[in-house]
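Q: Hi! First time asking for a complex rather than a single chain. Here are the components, and I think there are two in total. Is that enough to go on?
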Amino acid sequence: MSRILPVGVAQLGPIARNESRQSVVERMLDLLAQADERGCQLLVYPELALTTFFPRWYIEEQAEVDAFFEHSMPNPDVQPLFDEAARRGIGFHLGYAELCEEDGHTHRYNTAILVSPAGEIIGKYRKIHLPGHADNRPEKAFQHLEKRYFEIGTYGFPVWRAFDGILGMCICNDRRWPETYRVMGLQGVEMVVLGYNTPAISPDSPEIPNLQLFHNHLSMQAGAYQNGCWVAAAAKAGWEEGVEHIGGSCIIAPTGQIVAQALTEADELISYHCDLDLGKHFTQTTFNFAAHRRIEHYGLITERTGAIPPAK
Amino acid sequence: MSRILPVGVAQLGPIARNESRQSVVERMLDLLAQADERGCQLLVYPELALTTFFPRWYIEEQAEVDAFFEHSMPNPDVQPLFDEAARRGIGFHLGYAELCEEDGHTHRYNTAILVSPAGEIIGKYRKIHLPGHADNRPEKAFQHLEKRYFEIGTYGFPVWRAFDGILGMCICNDRRWPETYRVMGLQGVEMVVLGYNTPAISPDSPEIPNLQLFHNHLSMQAGAYQNGCWVAAAAKAGWEEGVEHIGGSCIIAPTGQIVAQALTEADELISYHCDLDLGKHFTQTTFNFAAHRRIEHYGLITERTGAIPPAK
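A: Yes, that's all I need. Here is the structure of the assembled complex.
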């Protein structure tokens, strides 16, 4: 049996601080047209795809921060993407900074949506593993202030029946955490889609260079294999406002193998015809969770947040 | 800061069904001598290191099965290893089939012990993720009857302060499960030691060949990186009673990189001087669990054993 879903991953090169959303959406439309030529039915765009990666800066003025956020979705800047994707019958995944009013308060999230081939938003995810810090650290080469600008996601890790399969989403740093994939794996996820912005050199550990691309793939390959699912991941890549970001956008099979990978750090489309039934080789044997998981021995994972070494 | 622990991994080639424990222990003593020459303070032997991998056979007679088990540890067959390791001041990890009387009943486990440089057993682990099946499947090229011959481990995944660090153990199939590493990571583990017997071709998925070595390393590299710990893993390798087992014994750094790897499928020693402080680069930044984990969103991991897809 096979259920083939042709998937594209639309890597974006750098977006300058002064580049307009209109310009970015035009780049995204170019990639959409390429995806259509290849027969893609789903196209994955990066995290915070519509602007530069602003959490690298400590910004005092909230209004200046909020200019990087979308106050509704879709909105006039993004509407051409919704329209053209629906015209072509291609669904997509899009990451953006979400500003919303809920419960009488203003909230800000690092968000991704899943849009059907008909142009309807059918799923929304808000990033849970916010990396970095909330305080100003001007001594760093660049900062990572996601914990300042965003609240923690409120939806958990849901999955959706869509594209004739079961899809889930996560965002950037979420992909390093095995819990992310497992919570979706326990809901039968067949494909995880995500975007990321990852500096090529971490300001936290410059003494361990050249490993960011390796860690990017390692975490996603393990998540795919260990849950018998596909992973399709789109980078925003290249030198953006003085900081280099890794590319390495990829599509990973449930075998853990990378089956498509971007070579550049620019706008680049990769694609693969993914068989959503392939994961069953694993979820019915080695990773038949019902047969093999032993939750009575996993208690610490949900009981304890931080590590507590044994007493000396 | 650095805390260097010189670690050896003693891969064993095949053990025939009729090879005596005395003969196996002599092979292990040879590897111990090599480890001493390299200055190792800890030596890791494989899973079920003292006999052939008997769960490949469906055996009716319990007495015939029990002949593969150790009824005490140490025992006269293994005492020379304990004596010589203590004489050399080298600690070790040893996997074996454990038969014991507890609570008035006979129990059988797939067990590993951690032995101090003074020859004292300081830790014991019993395998939790038993692979395979309990029923007779004579139609298979070979069987995998761990679920028949062993009970599920009773100790969880403890860690021990030993060798000037914090060590944990798991066994073979445990290494494929991210929960294994995470439960130890939440106890501050700095090195996980383990052994494995892994057929080169899985009878469950012969149509996906050549990936066993890749999956072996992928799971352990991800576990190391995502928990900021070392992993030292010893295979029993080669053609054993008509079944080929992968080698690939390795030592993996907290960076996820393989820093030493066996090339053969025979008895082979690999070693590395492991800095137990290296993991702090990760556990104090990207994988500072206290700062970044969100256990309120991990509930399914301990609530649900098997996967439950969303309603159609």
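A: Residues 4-303 of chain B form a domain with the Nitrilase/N-carbamoyl-D-aminoacid amidohydrolase fold (CATH 3.60.110.10). Let me know if you'd like any chain examined more closely.
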